[in-house]
Amino acid sequence: MGKKTTKTEVDVVLIGAGIMSATLGTLIHELSPDITIEILERLDTVAAESSDAWNNAGTGHSALCELNYTPQRPDGSVDISKAISIAEQYEVSKQFWSYLVEHNVIKNPEEFIRRVPHMSAVFGEKDVQFLKTRYEALTQHNLFKGMEYSEDKSLLNDWIPLMMQERDANEQIAATKMDIGTDVNFGTLTRDLISYLDKKENINLSTGNEVKDIERLPDGRWQVETKDLKTGARKNIQAKFVFIGAGGHSLLLLEKSGIPESKGYGGFPVGGQWLRCTNEEVIAQHHAKVYGKASVGAPPMSVPHLDTRYIDGKQALLFGPYAGFSTKFLKKGSYFDLPASIKLSNIRPMLSAGLDNLPLTKYLITEVMKKPKDKLDALKQFMPTAKMEDWEIEKAGQRVQVIKKHPVHGGILEFGTEVVSSADGSIAALLGASPGASTSVAVMINLLKRCFPDRAKGDSYRSKLRTMIPSWGKNLNDDAELCASTRKWTHDTLKLN
C-alpha cells in the first residue's frame, strides 16, 4: 500500500524558502497577523539556492555602480530612468529592514548588511566618455547626490590601490564612487526572516518537501501537492493564495498551475563561476564593489566586478562572474529542467528569442570554453598584478532569464524580474533574476496590492505600511530633504555609518 496523503488548509502557501518568500511572508505577517501560512522548501535548508551568499553578487543593487542599468542611446546620451527606479526600490528595502531592526525581528544588522563603496570603472576613451556622461546625468538627481567622478590616477590610487598597481601609465581609466553603497548577505537575511516566521503559531515551515503538482479546486482555492523527500510522505495543502518564489524552478511550477497568464513564458538558464581570492594580503588591499562594462552579448548578471564581500563575518574578494550554460534551472536542479519547461505555448517565443540573441549564445559558448588562464586575463584588466595562485574557482548560482511572447518578434528575452499572476490574483510567481533580491520589498508590496486588493484598501493596512516604510507613496528622488532624512534613519539603524 502507498503512503497515506494528509490534507491541511491554510490561507497562504509560499513555495521556496528564499529571500522573496521570506520577504513576502514577513510583510503578510506584519500587515495581517491573522493569516495562516505554509512555507515549502525542496532542500533541507533555507536560502541555499539563489539567496545564498556565494550564489549571488551580494550587491545592494541601487544602480550606483551597475552600468547595465544606464544604457547609452544612439546619440550618446544615457538613459537613467531604470537606475532611478531601482535606486528608489532599494531605499524601500532599507526602510523595511530598518523597521525590522527597530522591532527586534532582526537583531544584528551588521551580520547581513555592511557599508562598502559602490564604484564603476571603465577603460579607453569611448567608455570614459560614457561614464562621464552617465555621472553628469545621474548627479542631477537626489538619489545620486554625493557621487564622485575622477580620471586622476593619483586619486584613483587612493580609491582602488589594488587596481592601480603596475597599470600602464598611458591607459585611460575613469571611475565613479558612491560611499553609501552596501554589501548584503541575502542568505543571512533570509534565514533571519524565516526563523522569525517559523516561531509563529500560525506559520509552518516544511523543508525537504518538493512540490509535485498545483491544481485549482472547484471552489477557486488551490491545492498544492507535496512529497517529503526523506520519508516519501505526501501532503495536499489547500490555500486561498499561492506564491511561487522558487528561483529558477518558478517557471516549471507556474506551468503546473495551468493559468492562462503562464502561457508563452519560457526560460533561458545562465550559470556562472567566480574567481575567489585566497590570499589574505590581497583581500585586505581592496574595499569596494567595482563594476565594469559587460562584454558584447553578455547577460546583465555577467557584468564583471571586483567585489568586496562579507560572508560569515569575514571579508572576501571575488571577481566575475563568468557566465556559462546549463540546462539546469537551479544549482541543485536537474539537467531535464529546460526540456521539461518547453510546451506548445512557448516553443515559438523560445525559438524566436534564441534566434534574436545569437550574440548571447556565442558569448556563453565562449565563456564555457574558457580555461583558467583566460579567466585570469579578464581579471587582469581590473587587477594587472593578479596571479592565478591567489585565486580559486567558486561556482555561482544558476539564473533563469525570462522569455515572453512578443507580437512582432514572436519572443523576447527579458533581463529583469517579472511577477506573473492569475486574473483573480489567487496565484503569483516571480520570474527572472537581476536586480531581484535588492528590490524584493517593493516588488512584494506591489504583489500584495494586486493579490490582496480588499486588505490593501483598508485604512489599518495603509497605516501600518507607512509605519514600516515612511516614504511609501512618495518619491525620494523628488524630495531632497526626505531623501536625506530617510537615508540618515536607515543608515543609523542598520549601522551603516
Q: In the CATH hierarchy, what is the architecture at level 2?
A: 3-Layer(bba) Sandwich
Integer count of domains: 1
Question: What is the C-alpha radius of gyration, as a whole number of Å?
Answer: 23 Å
CA-based shape: globular
Enzyme class: oxidoreductase
GO biological process, one term: tricarboxylic acid cycle
Family: Belongs to the MQO family.
Keywords: FAD, Flavoprotein, Membrane, Oxidoreductase, Transmembrane, Transmembrane helix, Tricarboxylic acid cycle
Write the layout of secondary structure elements.
Elements: E1 5-15, H1 19-31, E2 37-40, H2 81-102, E3 113-115, E4 118-123, H3 125-138, E5 148-150, H4 153-159, H5 161-164, E6 173-178, E7 182-184, H6 186-198, E8 203-206, E9 209-216, E10 222-228, E11 234-244, H7 250-257, E12 266-277, H8 280-283, E13 289-291, E14 305-311, E15 314-324, H9 337-341, H10 347-356, H11 358-369, H12 372-382, E16 391-395, E17 399-406, E18 410-414, E19 417-421, E20 427-432, H13 440-451, H14 453-456, H15 459-468, H16 480-493
Parallel strand pairs: 1-2, 1-11, 2-8, 4-13, 11-20
Antiparallel strand pairs: 3-7, 4-6, 5-6, 9-10, 10-11, 12-15, 12-16, 12-17, 13-14, 14-15, 17-18, 19-20
Helix pairs in contact: 1-6, 1-13, 2-13, 2-16
Structure, described:
The protein has 497 residues and is α+β, with helices and mostly antiparallel strands. The protein has one domain (5-481): FAD/NAD(P)-binding domain (3-Layer(bba) Sandwich). Helix content is 33%, strand content 26%. The protein has 16 helices and 20 strands. The strands form 3 sheets. Strands 4, 5, 6, 12, 13, 14, 15, 16, 17 and 18 form a 10-stranded mixed β-sheet that branches. Strands 1, 2, 8, 9, 10, 11, 19 and 20 form an 8-stranded mixed β-sheet that branches. It is globular and about 70 Å long. The model is unreliable at 297-301 (pLDDT under 50).
